[in-house]
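Batch manifest line 217
LIGAND: adenosine monophosphate
JOB: complex structure
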Amino acid sequence: MRYLNIALAKGRLAENSISFFEAAGYKCGEITNASRKLIIEDNENMARFFLVKPADVPTYVDYGAADLGIAGKDSVMEAGRRLYEVLDLKFARCKMVVAGPKELAGKLDSLNNKRVATKYPAIARDYFENKRRESIEIIDLSGSVELAPLVGLAEVIVDLVETGNTLRENGLVILDEIAPISARLIVNRVSMKMESERINKIIEAFRKKLEGKAYRP
Ligand code: AMP
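JOB STATUS: finished
ARTIFACT:
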């Protein structure tokens, strides 16, 4: 039997991701955010876990460097890769939204050639160009996106909102909702066929955990 390679996202998804695999009988608790170790092996289950940047999880899974992984729906949408999204794990729930100053509420259409600041250029472009049929300019940022409308870098932003506190504290409001977001189990398309037995067991265990039932292999 070969090693099953599993990519997990560093940061806020890590702890819950680990608890899902532990519930499926895997031993990966050692791979915490605090640890510098990027890869750990669970020899008993012939599995190898690695912790990568959240946005990179779909890349590892698409290329088959990881057979499966847990990624935020935001990363899955932005990557636009050909992989199987098999299960909504219901944690790290938030929303992908368009936000901006409250003066723009209900007036999103009236603003031509909007500048949209975001860490998610593909999602923003798809939403404005394909859903709203509006041409926009993307301002690609890597963080603190909420600052952009406050300093005149962009009219609106596309970003994740959880409690809404960050928007509120910066005088911004939700102008439209693009998609609900949560953690997803994603699987490489070839691995789904070649390793179906092991992967289906994992899916079954995750389903049991979601239903609040214990998993017995
Ligand atoms: P909040 O103030 O609770 O609405 O959180 C908003 C900030 O947290 C934004 O800067 C988001 O980019 C970030 N954020 C919220 N939820 C998530 C999530 N599930 N994954 C990654 N970043 C998030």
